[in-house]
Amino acid sequence: MDSPPHDSSQDSQPGLPAAHQAVREEAPREPILTLPVALTAYVLLLAVIHLRVLLPPELENWTIDVFGFIPKRYDSSLLNLQIPGGAGAKVWTFVTYSLLHANLTHLGFNVLWLLPFGSALARRFGAVRFFLFLAVTAAAGALAHLVTHEHAVAPMIGASASVSGAMAAAIRFAFVRGSFLSFNRSDADTAARVPALPLSRALRDGRVVGFLAVWFGVNIIFGVGAIGVDSETTSVAWQAHIGGFFAGLLLFTLFDPVPRVRSDAADASSQDVSDRI
């Protein structure tokens, strides 16, 4: 005797419609932690470049002299001063210094700060804008360091000016409802693309002002980040952080592809809680 036909509905879990189970089974699982490709590539680049510490000491020092930012390089009164890199280094070191780090702690600290803020910014800007933004804020940090250390011989290295710029840019939208620091945050991509507040309104937001106060306090008191390196001393170039930070805060709009929030809706969009009756 033939066996009765198999009833596929018996494979379904009791109490759940088959269609519902299919949707549940096909729903993709989101990774716990994901980084945008642009940020991942940047971090890997910093890590690969840091392998220079494996070079012989003479070659490593030459690398820092050629690609680190040295204010003395621009001192016209010292015509006979020989600094490796020549005239070209006067141009490329405005950016290349930000790709070098003194040690793993220096590198790790910058990457740690960059992960939350840089991740949101990379998703918002896209790869090209993101890399260009990092270069511009690095140059702004170098310029601030040059103005305040015009006769310094010690090379400045570190990505802290770019990291500071990314943090400053990110707070333009970080606290907006649905963004990545909001209590009502959306998924990572949506949270990174909420409309930003106009700068004038952002600076009237207590959370933004509090963030600025803490950031400036930490940088001025402890000077965490970009480091000047020579054979005798290691010092903090905190002015470069501030230069990168202001560049990120003020130039954010030039890079931002997301339409800005309307002025009359800015206050409402910045709230983390729903209106209550």
Automatic annotation (TrEMBL):
GO molecular function: serine-type endopeptidase activity
Cellular-component GO terms for this entry: membrane
Membrane topology value: Multi-pass membrane protein
A family per Pfam: Rhomboid
InterPro entries linked: Peptidase_S54_rhomboid_dom, Rhomboid-like_sf
Region ranges (Disordered): 1-21
Spans traversing the lipid bilayer: 32-55, 94-115, 127-147, 153-175, 208-229, 235-255
Main subcellular location: membrane
Domain Peptidase S54 rhomboid positions: 90-253
Keywords from the UniProt entry: Cell inner membrane, Cell membrane, Membrane, Transmembrane, Transmembrane helix
Location in or out of the cell: Membrane
PANTHER family with a match to the protein in the record: RHOMBOID PROTEASE GLPG, RHOMBOID-RELATED PROTEIN
Annotated protein name in UniProt: Membrane protein
Organism: Bradyrhizobium nitroreducens
